[in-house]
Amino acid sequence: MADAPQPTPAPKKKSRWIAIYVILLVAAYLGGFVPEWLKAREQSQAREKAEHALTVTRFEKDLGSAAIDARRAEYEAARQSASAFFTGARFEIDQGDKSALSGDQRKNLAPLLNSRDQLITLLARGDPASQGQLSDLYVAVRKALGV
Hints:
Blueprint: H1 10-71, H2 75-94, H3 103-109, H4 116-125, H5 129-145
Helix pairs in contact: 1-2, 1-5, 2-4
């Protein structure tokens, strides 16, 4: 009798193709994932930079509005704007490393918040002395924030 041809082991060939298919599938996934991840990281950094600029601008706006309102003898509006500044600044300082402000900015800004109660009281009383104090605070805050 003649020897019958031996069948080739199909399971070995099939498992090899499955492995190649899985490797190609993972490569295709990573080929789409990595660029999107890089783009998301870049967008996150841009968002953080914009948040920082917005925070600094908001502080400058609140304090500038308070100073202008006080000069116009609109003490209640000045008190509200000053209060918004102090509340926002305290929040950012308390955030620590999660803050939109840098460590140096937080360190420089913190002592300026000590005048809060005195200034808010002057504004609530409608005292013209608050005008000069707000202007001085505005200049000090701009310096502390590096504006």
